[in-house]
Design goal:
By secondary structure, the protein is of the alpha+beta class. Helices cover about 25% and strands about 20% of the residues. It contains 13 helices and 19 strands. The protein has an eight-stranded antiparallel barrel with strand order 12-13-14-15-16-17-18-19. It has a seven-stranded antiparallel sheet with strand order 2-1-11-10-9-8-7, with helices on both faces. A two-stranded antiparallel ribbon has the order 3-6. Helix 1 packs antiparallel against helix 12, helix 2 crosses helix 7 and helix 9 packs across helix 10.
Length: about 450
């Protein structure tokens, strides 16, 4: 028997509506729109507005600010996957003369390049991009504030450089490349560099009065690849599906997984806050959940995109005010509401399609010294090694086809697990990056570094 998850329950829908209604009212936002994604598609849209008789829907554009950076990162990863560049390449190799060329492309993606957070005055988000026609105008006379690669320091100019890199290697404007390589293949026809009707107007709300001031919608010029885009909850819901699963027309699932993997050294405050950064994506821990996504803001607009892979739930929230509602918290709450009210129904357990006899020999209990571990074979052809009890090193492993296995995560990521056999072909032990795993604690019949005391195990009288 199967149960459809196509629609959310009425109680869940009301809880979602209540959350955005509170956010719009308490945050004094002229309008706020949201969407929830589950099972690869949007299952809920909601909106609250201060204008009677008018409710923005999933097709109304809002400016999404730094969510633009995730789109730019996708373009850079595409260049890497095509072999045009390597993430370890210094920027100077492909875009010489910037003054920040010693930073690698990966460091620019992860905000560890040492660059300043902002472009020199005047405030770039509220002034025309024509004031900064060249990269040197974006970077200023001293672009580096920190040693390259040593710390996470969010940098808008860094993503301006990545946009320029895309233009240099593609021979076309960043906006054209983005539309051709990402927006059109994914069907994001309501995402654009310039506003397209219907779109919301951006507002500043007076902090001490219920009054509004219109915000200018500047073209950011050279800074466009850091924050220019306009989009909708409908388009960003589809983009969230892509970020969760990949799409071979744009970027493979493996490359999208790489984007979601922490790549920046977290500072003490970030560790306490449970947040870090991947390659164009923010990574955070909230309510016991690992969430990935990105936030955005520009004068007149706020945006948040949050994805919980484990729950298969994503949320998009957009508002047209400079400050007010805490959209990141709202998006996290929308994910939590659905995940807790309607927990993900797991796929049915299924056995392996085929049994590998040699691999089956590896399954079961092993000891590293006196630490007990279990190795379990999974239906997808992989293996899972974890402690028998308590915390400790654990990892998934991928079969290499030659009898060896490669670790995929944690301490053993990239390490080789090799079954060692005796002259008669029987299994002796496992060698995992030089660690010996035996069937019994310090098994005398296996090779154990340091040897085993000849008198064996004993007690104390």
């Amino acid at each position: 028997m199967t149960t459809s998850q196509d629609e959310l329950l009425p109680g869940t829908r009301r809880a979602l509506l209540h959350r955005i209604a509170v956010a719009q009212a308490e945050g004094r936002a002229p309008s706020l729109v949201a969407a929830v994604v589950r099972g690869g598609r949007a299952v809920w849209h909601g909106a609250r507005t201060s204008v009677d008789g008018h409710g923005p829907d999933e097709n109304v554009q809002y400016r999404v600010g730094s969510i633009t950076k995730t789109f730019t990162a996708v373009l850079v990863l595409r260049l890497r996957d095509e072999g045009v560049l390597d993430l370890g390449d210094p920027l100077e190799k492909h875009l010489p003369g910037t003054g920040a060329g010693e930073a690698t492309i990966a460091q620019l993606l992860a905000h560890t390049s040492g660059l300043a957070a902002e472009s020199p005055a005047p405030w770039w988000e509220r002034t025309p991009g024509s004031l900064r026609p060249e990269l040197r105008d974006v970077l200023g006379e001293q672009p580096l504030l920190h040693p390259v690669g040593r710390r996470f320091h969010y940098s808008n100019p860094g993503y301006s450089l990545l946009g320029a890199l895309v233009e240099e290697l593609r021979g076309a404007p960043w906006e054209d490349v983005l539309r051709r390589e990402v927006l059109e293949p994914l069907g994001l026809d309501r995402t654009s560099a310039q506003p397209q009707a219907p779109h919301a107007g951006g507002w500043a709300v007076h902090p001490w009065a219920d009054a509004l001031l219109p915000e200018p919608a500047e073209d950011l010029g050279r800074m466009a690849s850091a924050g220019q885009l306009w989009s909708t909850t409908g388009d960003l819901a589809r983009f969230a599906v892509f970020l969760a699963h990949g799409d071979d027309r744009v970027l493979s699932a493996d490359s999208v997984t790489e984007m979601r993997t922490p790549a920046a050294p977290a500072e003490a405050a970030d560790v306490m806050d449970g947040s870090t950064y991947g390659l164009g994506l923010q990574v955070q821990r909230r309510d016991g959940r690992l969430l990935i996504g990105h936030g955005g803001s520009l004068p007149g607009f706020l945006a948040s995109l949050t994805i919980s892979l484990a729950d298969d739930v994503s949320a998009v929230v957009l508002a047209n005010c400079t400050s007010g509602p805490p959209l990141a918290s709202v998006a996290v709450d929308l994910v939590r509401i659905v995940a807790e009210a309607e927990p993900r129904i797991p796929e049915p357990w299924r056995p392996m399609p085929e049994v590998d006899v040699e691999a089956m020999e590896l399954a079961g209990q092993w000891y590293w010294g006196t630490h007990g571990f279990a190795l379990r074979l999974t239906a997808d052809g992989g293996a899972w090694l974890e402690p028998l009890a308590g915390s400790g090193r654990r990892s998934r492993f991928r079969a290499n086809g030659d009898g060896t296995w490669t670790g995929l995560e944690g301490y053993y990521a990239g390490e080789l697990l090799r079954p060692v056999r005796r002259p008669d072909g029987s299994l002796s032990h496992l060698d995992l990056g030089s660690f010996v795993f035996t069937r019994q604690p310090y098994d005398e019949s296996a090779s154990v570094p340091g040897g085993v005391d000849p008198e064996g195990w004993r007690g104390i009288r």
